[in-house]
Amino acid sequence: MFKLIKKDRDTQARLGKMTTSHGEVDTPNFMPVGTVGSVKTLTPDEIKSADTQMLLANAYHLFLRPGAEVIKQAGGLHNFMNWSGPILTDSGGYQVFSLAQLCKIKDDGVEFKSHIDGSSFFFTPESILEFQQVLGSDIMMVLDECVPYPSQHDYVKRSLKLTTDWARRSRHRFLRCLEDTGSQQSDRNNGPITTQGRQYLFGIVQGGMYFDLRKEAVDQLIEIGFDGYALGGLSVGEPRELMYDIVESTIPMLPDNKTHYLMGVGTIIDIFESVERGVDIFDCVVPTRNGRNGVAFTATGKMQIRNARFKNDNTPIDRECVCACCKGYARSYLHHLFKANEILGLRLLSLHNITFYAKLMQNIRQAIKEDRFLEFKKEFLGNYNT
Amino acid sequence: MFKLIKKDRDTQARLGKMTTSHGEVDTPNFMPVGTVGSVKTLTPDEIKSADTQMLLANAYHLFLRPGAEVIKQAGGLHNFMNWSGPILTDSGGYQVFSLAQLCKIKDDGVEFKSHIDGSSFFFTPESILEFQQVLGSDIMMVLDECVPYPSQHDYVKRSLKLTTDWARRSRHRFLRCLEDTGSQQSDRNNGPITTQGRQYLFGIVQGGMYFDLRKEAVDQLIEIGFDGYALGGLSVGEPRELMYDIVESTIPMLPDNKTHYLMGVGTIIDIFESVERGVDIFDCVVPTRNGRNGVAFTATGKMQIRNARFKNDNTPIDRECVCACCKGYARSYLHHLFKANEILGLRLLSLHNITFYAKLMQNIRQAIKEDRFLEFKKEFLGNYNT
Fold first, then answer.
1. What whole-number distance in Å separates Cα of residue B229 and Cα of residue B205?
2. Which of A94, A71, A93 is nearest to A82 (CA)?
3. Where is A224: in which H helix or E strand?
4. Is pLDDT above 60 for A183?
5. CA-based angle A194:A195:A201, to the nearest 5?
6. What pairs with residue A326 in β-bridges?
7. CB neighbours (10 Å) of residue B152?
8. For A109-118, A353-362, A373-382, B93-102, which range has the lowest pLDDT when averaged over its residues?
9. Which residues of B touch A61 (CB under 8 A)?
10. Interface confidence (ipTM) of the complex
11. Do A331 and A322 meet the contact criterion of CB atoms below 8 Å apart?
12. What 3 state SS string does A285-302 have?
């Protein structure tokens, strides 16, 4: 499902293409986050107008609300939310450990109480995979334990053993789906095909901030075999340089012909640094959450639209930007909308920000294509006030 | 600016057309409310897609925030909010008396403290007219005192004297604008022409629930002479039948060749009853506020989308409706969005509701055209669970 098109001359940056049943995704690419089946404040049409190619949704949230039955009856998540492009669903591992209450890890899964109403649930690697099949996501993620930062080596080592075991069980269940659905023999090693099309399964490399454990994780996941590999447990509070070091040492161990996904990242600078180290896809709430907080991304850095200096500024946020926000509205109006707590303001900045991110990724791809990624990075970050 | 096209055979219902510098408005018509320069949650493109022809905005709110200077520098309200169709602006009289604090009525105007930050302001009939000229609204409203319900006859009589005096001063200031701007003599009795085009001024009939005072108000306003006449001080808590009686007795006293505007109304049934009595235009927050509260309008009545029975309902709100909400999303998804407090839900129901209102007005116009208004009213309300 992933095709490596070209490597940058000077760095580990890669140009690639993922092919899913719901369309192609050019890499490097960035997925806006539609936590509960909606990229906050935006319609799928708007998301598409921003040149977004793929979304992320959260299995944990969707499992709790609206639940499997509702989405099943709606014909899967694509139908339910009216998004016809590719969707990647996070397994819920990260959410269980960060949001849920009274989370108890057991060998066969994780017990937790819902952050919404306190009711109890038990996720197993198999159950969360089956739920992602109901969602019909193009890319499913295995259940993992995302260890906090900092964690002791022996704790992370024990956790990794469990995560690897869960990964093996996920892959096993993934292949067995095939038999259940009576798919053709030729698809035997490629996973299930649902009414939503073929689904893929990615493994998640854990191992905390320990290089030896990251290597162990990679070796084991490759042995099991996945359609793509994600780096999890990063951007969890560690120093930025440490994250880059982990990415830099881990990515080269992954197969060249599979997608490299850095989960939960990130900021503009993190994206540049990680693309340079060989990462293909990203997801983060940064563009949408910032938009709702009145922060717009521009070529010169972030802009807080509530700032008094925009009160009478009748220029758009970005003259070059083609989004409906920049084409139709001046900073003065956006400033007013945020001052007056009007929802339209949240919408317009969210739309601008995901357009900005999609355009950035497009420019990064073009730069890799032309072997000038480092040049583009230097030029962009030179103008961008982090 | 108003052309009476036809009267219904059986009732006082009228078919007409208003012509403004920003486009034509077929009457009867309904204006969604864009209180602070945004129809809550929606873009102008969406409002237009709903077949909305004209918006209302509030001078009181816009005066306080963002204020005259910002809108002046943005080139008027149309430019500021990116809406190219007609706009009617309320004078702020109603808001001063309902929202502001420590409101003191004086002969020459009204002193009040802002509901936002408590700072003091003084509105005069002239100052609020001048502010509406800065806004560049197509239809401006005079400053009036909106008396509460119930009020004693002698209080309403004294209030009416003031309101009439303010109306006279407003008209005087309106005509003087002409001289200020050096417009042609031929426009002398037609008011000012700004960069936004010609503006019109409507008078407001007050008089509480007293028929004699309503008559007095009408007589005086007609003597002063306005481009259109509004009924104010209704839908302020009085019994519904009393409002209909006031409308029924007041409208026939107004000139046939001028717009009849019932301010702040209303519900579906109020619109039918008032159109039947000769009202041409309406404004109300009902469709948008209901939308944000999870209530969708349908041919059979209002629907609370949070209701559990919609959890698995994979049909649209209204199969006949052409809005983006009904074309793209099922009730199950909308139910989920409201349960999960997603802003997209507020947007989609607001859009559906203003589409529903615009379609209703279109059907009312068609019925009047075909001399079957009463038939249509009976049929519609027969299906509609009020």
1. 7
2. A71
3. helix A211-224
4. no
5. 30
6. none
7. 11
8. B93-102
9. 340
10. 0.96
11. no
12. CHHHHHHHCCEEEECCEE
Q: Which amino acid does the sequence have at A377? A: K
Structure tokens at B304: 């609370």
d(CA A14, CA A280): 7
C-alpha B372/C-alpha B8 separation (Å) is 8
Element housing A262 (H / E):
strand A259-262
Considering CB atoms only, which of B61, B314, B340 is closest to A73?
Answer: B314
- What is the distance between the alpha carbons of residues B163 and B206, in angstroms, rounded to a whole number? 8
Question: C-alpha angle with apex A368: A364 to A370, nearest 5 degrees?
Answer: 115
What letter would DSSP give residue A51?
Answer: T
Beta bridge partners of B363: none
Considering only CB atoms, which residues of chain A are within 8 Å of chain B?
36-38, 40-45, 61, 65-66, 69-70, 73-75, 80-82, 311-312, 314, 324, 328-330, 332-333, 335-337, 339-340, 342-344, 346-348
Q: Which residue blocks in chain B are alpha helix, DSSP H? A: 44-49, 59-64, 68-73, 77-81, 93-98, 125-135, 153-181, 211-224, 240-250, 268-276, 286-292, 324-328, 331-339, 343-369, 373-383
| End-to-end Cα separation, chain B, in angstroms | 35
For an interface test with A, give the residue of B77, B331, B338, B342 to mutate (most A CBs within 10 A): B342
Give the H or E element holding residue A128.
helix A125-135
> Are A43 and B347 within 8 A, CB to CB?
yes
Which residues on A lie below 8 Å from B37 (Cβ)? 333, 336
pLDDT greater than 80 at residue B177:
no
| CA proximity to B220, closest of B141, B280, B160, B159 | B160
Query: Measured between alpha carbons, how far is B102 from A174 in angstroms, rounded to an integer?
Result: 69
- The Cα-based distances of B284 to B57, B90, B353 in angstroms read 11, 12, 12
Q: Which residues contact A89 (CB under 8 A, 6 or more apart)?
A: A56, A57, A58, A59, A62, A77, A132, A135, A137, A139, A140, A141
Instruction: Give B337's contacts in chain A (Cβ within 8 Å).
Output: 38
Interface size A-B, in CB pairs within 8 Å, comes to 114
Angle at A278 between CA A272 and CA A280, to 5 degrees: 80
User: Token match 């357009």: residue?
Assistant: A355
Q: pTM score, two decimals? A: 0.96
Tokens of B112: 């009040």
Mean pLDDT of B6-13: 98
Count CB atoms within 10 A of the CB of residue A223: 10
Let me know: does B288 contact B40? Beta carbons within 8 Å: yes
Integer distance in angstroms from the first to the last C-alpha of chain A?
35
Q: Closest by alpha carbon to A221, among A230, A208, A233, A210?
A: A230
Q: Which of B63, B138, B146, B56 is nearest to B98 (CA)?
A: B146
Residue A344: Cβ-neighbour burial (10 angstroms; 0-12, 13-18, 19+): buried
As a whole number of Å, the CA-based R_g of chain B is 21
The HSE-up count of residue B94 (CA atoms within 13 Å, CB side) is 20
Whether B202 and B141 have beta carbons less than 8 Å apart is answered as yes
Q: What is the pLDDT of residue A197?
A: 82
Q: In what order do the strands lie in the sheet with B281-283?
A: B29-31, B281-283, B259-262, B228-231, B200-205, B139-141, B87-90, B55-58
Q: Is A384 helix (H, G, I), strand (E, B) or coil?
A: coil
The pLDDT-based confidence of B240 (bands split at 50, 70, 90) is: very high
Question: How far, CA to CA in Å, does B54 sit from each of A84, B3, B32, B271, B367?
Answer: 34, 16, 8, 16, 21
Taking the C-alpha atoms of residue A81 and residue B311, their distance in angstroms, rounded to an integer, is 14
Beta bridge partners of B54: none
